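agent> Task received from the user: take the single chain below, predict its 3D structure, and emit structure tokens. No templates, no multimer pairing.
agent> Plan: (1) validate residues, (2) run structure prediction, (3) serialize to tokens, (4) report one or two observations.
agent> Step 1 OK, no nonstandard residues flagged.
tool_call: predict_structure(input=
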Amino acid sequence: MTTRKKPPAESSAASESFALGADGTRLYFHRQAGPSPVTALLCDGLACDGFIWKYLWDELGAELSVAHSHYRGHGRSSPPVDPEQIGVKALADDLDAVRYAVGDPPVVLVGHSLGTQVALEAYRRRPEGVAALVLLCGSFGRVTYTFKGSEVLASVLPNLIEFATTHPKVARAIWSSVPPRVAIAVARLTGDIDLGAVRLEDVEPYFQHVSIVDFELFLRMLRAAGEHSAEDILPQVRVPVLVVAGARDSFTPAAVSEAMAEAIPGAELDVIPSGTHLAPLEHHAEIAARISAFLARNAVITPAP
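)
tool_result: status=success, residues=305
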């Protein structure tokens, strides 16, 4: 493994820039200096560009430094230079590049949904400097086999990918033609979004971003996430871990998060009774308080007076 030189810490309180992945892919990131040099490094779900951190960015930033990056092919990051490098391990390598780009401080890897797998894989890759893991509404892997409690997604993905590959214009047109508010209405009817707990303007950015992500890339990354597993690393984790699950999460059933917590030595588990997959938006203040208490208990940060 190539040894990288630690860059000088940035002097400005807030900044944005680009890091380079191993294949040369430009990776957008932004960071904000906080009261502690320990940095909460926020890892998105698939097809997300940060909407889930709308409140936690400031709430965590009251005690930590915070940083967030866009996955390759997402948001302001460029498409992958090597189109085959789209799996969880490639995303973990990208996260490591971002760690170096922000000065390689001690980090708390905070993952939501797919970001949980990325955080675990990043810990496997380079555990040095990882102070803790916070895993929100996510799984250790094989997500397409547990989505909504069944293996249906895994079984239909190959056909969807073939269609997107052979009919790219048609697939693109269908993928991008659904208005965000229509998609939100459908998600509300299926119980995946509780607009009584989260504001419409908080979730619209997700559906707007989804509509511009390359459809074939999205499907291929989803398939790669479904075939990836970090289950083998769970018993070997040697840093404090907080697992937060939503009891009403249909994307990642709480039972999956519970099993993950049981497999990690000393991991703490919090189940939010009314939480869905969007718990970091719905219950952000509660989750921020739980993360703060968890980090203080484990001496990752010094609690504010």
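agent> Step 4: summary for the user.
The domain at 14-144+228-297 is CATH 3.40.50.1820 (Rossmann fold).
agent> Done.
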